[in-house]
Structure formats: structure tokens, C-alpha cells
């Protein structure tokens, strides 16, 4: 059985919508950021602070390569498919889905939740985020499926994903 793999920017809801989707489809939920935290015994911001982004990315790649296909929903970190080897590894085990949320909406959400995100710990975080969004959009669009989330609620978003994925 193919894994369902959620991809997209920070704040897109990969983890929250992913958990709901997993419940709905009776799949196991896996979060690659959480697996890195478990492996190193430290939070994501501490990992960035103590070891740097490169080391975080190396762990991210090795975690991604250890994943297997099956009845799972996988939530990935926002930067994970920027390494093409990661995208290739994910494609081998399942269907990649881009949760596409408009930039302005993501910025609104991140005003509340940016604190735990090391790449957004700066005064000009909105500009930095905007630049990341623009750089990454084309990479995310390489996913097998694109689902537009817009203003959809958590349940609606999970439903939309489910409908797209169930026939794959
Ligand atoms: C990152 C996104 C984060 C986390 C790390 C880097 C990124 O995950 O992996 O802070 O580069 O976009 P979320 O997308 O779950 O916030």
C-alpha cells in the first residue's frame, strides 16, 4: 500500500491536517520532524541552535530514507523536498501531496506559531518567509497531487485530501 505524504510550507497544516486524515483513513500518522526530535532528544529549534541547519538536514534525509510504504500518512518538514534525493525517496514509497495555502494566509497563521520555527526567528521574518515561499513553490509543485487549502477548516481540508487520495 502506498504511503500518503504531505508536503508544503511551514504553517500549511501538514501535521494537524495529517493527523485528522490519518484518523479518517485509519492509517498511522508519522511526522518526520518528530522522528528527528525523538532521535536527537532535542527540540527542532535546539537542534538548529546547537548543530546548525546542515546537520538538521542530514538527519532529515536519513529519516526520510528510512521510511517505508504502507498504511501511513507522513507529514514532512517544509524544507524536506528541497533536496531532490529526498523527493525521490518519498516518491518511491508513496504519493506526494502539496498542501497549497496562499502566502498571505500562511503569514497570518505564523504570527501565532512562528516561535518554534528557527528559520523565522528574525525581525524581518515576513520578508524571509515570503522569499522562501517564492523559491520553494516550483519545487512543491513537482508533487504528484496539489490540493488547495485556502480558508478550508481542518475537517474540510482532511476531507479534500482524503477524496483526492482514496482513488490513487
Ligand atoms: C522547516 C520547516 C519545519 C522544520 C524546520 C525547517 C523549513 O517544519 O522542519 O523548522 O525549512 O520549512 P514545518 O513545515 O512542520 O514547520
Describe what is shown at a glance.
This protein has 168 residues and is an alpha/beta fold.
List the helices and strands and how they pair.
Layout: E1 3-7, H1 14-25, E2 28-31, H2 32-40, H3 44-51, H4 53-66, E3 72-75, H5 84-93, E4 94-100, H6 103-113, H7 125-140, E5 145-148, H8 154-166
Parallel strand pairs: 1-3, 1-4, 2-3, 4-5
Helix pairs in contact: 1-8, 2-4, 3-4
Features:
168 residues, alpha/beta, Rossmann fold, five-stranded parallel β-sheet, 5 strands, 55% helix, globular
Question: Could you describe the 3D structure shown?
Answer:
This protein is an alpha/beta fold and 168 residues long. Helix 1 crosses helix 8 (154-166), helix 2 (32-40) packs across helix 4 and helix 3 (44-51) packs across helix 4. A five-stranded parallel sheet has the order 2-3-1-4-5. It is globular. The protein has eight helices and five strands; from the N terminus they run E-H-E-H-H-H-E-H-E-H-H-E-H. Helix content is 55%, strand content 14%. The longest helix is centred in the last third of the chain and has 16 residues, at 125-140. Bound molecules: shikimate-3-phosphate. The site of shikimate-3-phosphate has 11 residues, from helix 1.
Distance between the termini: 10 Å
Beta-strand segment tally: 5
CATH topology: Rossmann fold
| CATH level-two architecture | 3-Layer(aba) Sandwich
Under CATH, the homologous superfamily reads P-loop containing nucleotide triphosphate hydrolases
Helix-strand pattern, N to C? EHEHHHEHEHHEH
Q: Number of helical segments?
A: 8
**Strand residue percentage:** 5-15%
CATH top level assignment: Alpha Beta
